[in-house]
C-alpha cells in the first residue's frame, strides 16, 4: 500500500523563507537522491499532519505529486517543533525501482497469547525493538516484518534471526555477521 500526498514546488529557501511558509500553514521539505537535482517543496500542514499520523508513512514508500509529476520517496528526516510537536521540515529521498534502498520497517509480533510461555507458564512478551533496518528493492519493501512467537517458552529470547523475511528483503544487522543478531523480544515472568 503506497500513501500519496500533494506538494507544491518552492523557489525561496533559507530560514526566513521557511518561517514565512510555516506562518502561511505550509511545511517546507526537500526531495533529493537519484539522478535528478534536489527539489524544494512545501506541503499544506493539515494534509501533512494527517499523512504523518497514517501507519506506514514514516517507514514505507510515499508517492509525492509536485506539479503533476509523481515520485516515490522515503521519509529520511522529520523535524518537529520541540513543544508543539508540529512538523517543521521534512527530508525525502527518491526511491528508484532498480536501486536497493535501506530503511527501517516495523516489527509485528504475533501469537504471543497462544505461546506456551505466556499461556501455560505465566510469562509475558516484552518487546525490546519495534523497528528493524532492511535492504531491498522498493517493490519488495514490506509494510511490517512478522515475528511468530507461538513456540515461545518462558525465559526465551527472540533475535533478529527469528524475523520471517519476505523474498528479496535482507536485515542489515545480519549482513554484518552472527554477532549482530540482536535481541528484539523476550518472554519473561509476569510481574503482577
From TrEMBL:
GO terms for molecular function: 5S rRNA binding; structural constituent of ribosome. Residues 1-20 are annotated as: Disordered. Keywords: Ribonucleoprotein, Ribosomal protein, RNA-binding, rRNA-binding. Residues 5-92 form the Large ribosomal subunit protein bL25 L25 domain. One of its GO terms (biological process) is translation. GO terms for cellular component: cytosolic large ribosomal subunit. Residues 101-188 form the Large ribosomal subunit protein bL25 beta domain. This is Large ribosomal subunit protein bL25. It comes from Marinomonas arctica.
Amino acid at each position: 500500500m503506497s500513501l500519496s500526498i500533494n506538494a507544491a514546488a518552492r523557489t525561496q529557501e533559507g530560514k526566513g523563507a521557511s518561517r514565512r511558509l510555516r506562518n502561511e500553514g505550509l511545511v517546507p521539505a526537500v526531495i533529493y537522491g537519484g539522478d535528478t537535482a534536489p527539489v524544494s517543496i512545501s506541503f499544506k500542514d493539515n494534509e501533512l499532519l494527517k499523512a504523518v499520523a497514517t501507519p506506514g508513512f514514516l517507514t514505507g514508500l510515499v508517492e509525492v505529486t509536485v506539479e503533476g509529476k509523481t515520485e516515490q520517496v522515503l521519509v529520511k528526516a522529520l523535524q518537529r517543533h520541540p513543544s508543539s510537536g508540529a512538523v517543521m521540515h521534512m527530508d525525502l529521498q527518491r526511491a528508484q525501482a532498480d536501486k536497493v534502498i535501506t530503511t527501517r520497517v516495523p516489527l509485528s509480533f504475533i501469537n504471543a497469547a497462544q505461546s506456551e510461555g505466556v499461556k501455560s507458564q505465566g510469562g509475558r512478551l516484552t518487546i525490546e525493538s519495534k523497528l528493524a533496518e532492511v535492504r531491498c528493492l522498493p517493490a519488495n519493501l514490506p509494510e511490517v516484518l512478522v515475528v511468530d512467537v507461538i513456540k515461545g517458552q518462558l525465559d526465551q529470547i527472540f533475535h533478529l534471526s527469528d524475523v520471517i523475511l519476505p523474498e528479496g528483503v535482507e536485515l542489515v544487522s545480519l549482513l554484518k555477521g552472527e554477532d549482530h543478531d540482536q535481541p528484539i523480544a523476550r518472554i519473561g515472568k509476569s510481574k503482577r
